[in-house]
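Let's study today's protein:

:::
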Amino acid sequence: MVLPPVLTEQSRQASSVAASRYGSFHEGHHGPLPRPASFQSHSSAPAAFARDGMLFGALYAIVHGCYNLATNDNDIPGEISDVLVVAKLGTHEEQTPAVNNNSHPTWSNDNRFRFRVGPARAAALELEVFDQTALRKLSLGTLSVPVNVLLPSEWQRLRYPLKDGAGGELELDVRWEPEELRH
């Protein structure tokens, strides 16, 4: 199921304010990268689809929190272990730190990620919420955000129900910064 982004003026303003408060974005272990606000703005959507419909650019994500997470049937009823979110685009994978015993975890540190996109015909940010203990890592649900449904060069606040789990929601900000393919 393809989810369109939730785009209201209030969510755009909240996302812009939130994004300006956070520090640098990280990509792998290469250190800080420039904040998207410092990037040259692209003026129109067609740049997002360079030659032959290929996607190319950078995707930024800020994971804010999860809400109403349900425990796995194997756990003690009503108890959540250490919750973390894994974000993946292509082969690049990042994760938030674990938040202990909380069915509504929020993150304000180590929750900002940058992913290189393409060139590719399709790309999606895949997010998975895990309940982790010392012995296992159980999925609490997933969310897929296709890059091609995002407005270019704008922060967008998304909050959607998790799929393939026992319930709960994931909230994040995303920003797609397209670049033109040069041949």
Remarks:
- The chain has one helix and eleven strands.
- The CA atoms of residues 9 and 156 lie 10 Å apart.
- The chain has one domain: 9-26+53-178.
- The longest strand covers residues 55-67.
